[in-house]
């Protein structure tokens, strides 16, 4: 699978509210030792990321990620995106640096975004 296709599937997992379906999407796109980090958390497994996504969905109903730019080279990608709520209101904008393994699965996502005023 091309890196762009892998990213599209990974992005879809962020809006999947059914934990079983979300886990299946992540199993198909993430390496077993996938590491995710953003300004407030770090996870080191598919299950931990799925739980984190579920927690964010409780805070931001209708959560979805919308890719605004995508560039790649040598099994790495840099993705610009917006995080929107269920009303298509932008909650934040950010960038993710992703890396995939030799099997074509994402092995790492390092996420950068602006925290809302007053956040840690």
Structure commentary:
This protein is α+β, with helices and mostly antiparallel strands. The chain has a single domain, classed as Nuclear Transport Factor 2, Chain: A (Roll), CATH 3.10.450.50. 30% of the residues lie in helices and 40% in strands. It has 3 helices and 6 strands. It has helices at 3-13, 19-29, 46-59; strands spanning 30-37, 42-43, 64-73, 76-84, 90-100, 106-113. α1 (3-13) packs antiparallel against α2 and α2 (19-29) crosses α3 (46-59). The chain is globular, with a radius of gyration of 13 Å.
How many DSSP-defined strands? 6
Approximately what portion of the residues adopt beta-strand conformation?
35-45%
Span from first to last CA?
A: 38 Å
CATH class: Alpha Beta
Number of discrete domains: 1
Segments where pLDDT lies below 50 for 5+ residues?
none
Figure out the total of helices: 3
H-E order: HHEEHEEEE
Summed up:
The protein is 30% helix and 40% strand. It is an alpha+beta fold.
Q: Keywords for this structure?
A:
120 residues, alpha+beta, Nuclear Transport Factor 2, Chain: A, 6-stranded mixed sheet, 6 strands
Secondary-structure map:
Blueprint: H1 3-13, H2 19-29, E1 30-37, E2 42-43, H3 46-59, E3 64-73, E4 76-84, E5 90-100, E6 106-113
Parallel strand pairs: 1-6
Antiparallel strand pairs: 1-2, 3-4, 4-5, 5-6
Helix pairs in contact: 1-2, 2-3
């Amino acid at each position: 699978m091309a890196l762009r296709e892998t990213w599209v599937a990974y992005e879809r997992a962020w809006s999947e509210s059914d934990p079983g379906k979300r886990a299946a999407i992540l199993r198909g796109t993430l390496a077993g030792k996938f590491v995710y980090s953003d300004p407030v958390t770090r996870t080191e497994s598919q299950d931990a990321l799925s739980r984190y996504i579920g927690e964010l969905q409780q805070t931001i109903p209708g959560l979805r990620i919308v890719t605004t730019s995508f560039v790649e080279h040598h099994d790495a990608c840099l993705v610009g995106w917006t995080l929107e709520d269920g009303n298509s209101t932008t909650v934040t904008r950010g960038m993710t640096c992703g890396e995939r393994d030799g099997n074509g699965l994402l092995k790492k996502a390092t996420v950068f975004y602006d925290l809302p005023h007053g956040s840690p």
